[in-house]
Amino acid sequence: MEIVIIIGFVVIVLAILNIDGKLKRNLESNERIIARLDILIKNQKDKE
């Protein structure tokens, strides 16, 4: 019975780490998009 609890705990921890990794990659992607948009906004303001 203890082995089942340990295996369940390990599966839950791995699932949380997987979700965390996906969220971090998504955040990094969003930060790059925001940086590019900031550059485009600055260039547009400079043209005006």
UniProtKB/TrEMBL annotation:
**Mind telling me which residue stretches traverse the membrane in this protein?**
6-23
Q: Does the keyword Transmembrane feature in the UniProt annotation?
A: yes
Q: Which UniProt keywords apply?
A: Membrane, Transmembrane, Transmembrane helix
Q: What domain of life does the UniProt record list for this protein's source?
A: Bacteria
Q: What is this protein called?
A: YrzO family protein
